[in-house]
Amino acid sequence: MEDALARIRHQITDTTTTVLNDLDTIEDPVQRQQAARTVLEELLPDMGREIKAHRSRTVAGLKEGRTLKQVAEMIGSSIALVDQLIKSGKQNKQPTLGKGGK
Asked: What keyword terms does UniProt attach to this protein (predicted)?
């Protein structure tokens, strides 16, 4: 898991640098701030929703053959959160990032 997290951190750092560099290519400061606002208000929240949905689907997968309590103990969480994640995972089956989904 640590290797995967290190790769993810590196990818996010690289992507952030690329986004900042791309924003800097927008000469008009008004348009540049509008683009930055779009990144902050639309693109990053979309990514967050996709990652949360992925987490929910993963927890739902852990539930198969286990009780909520067992899953909660496995992931170090409360039974209520596990239940919430599982319910959310059943509603969020398909990724929408990059498809105009919110």
From this structure: Plasmid
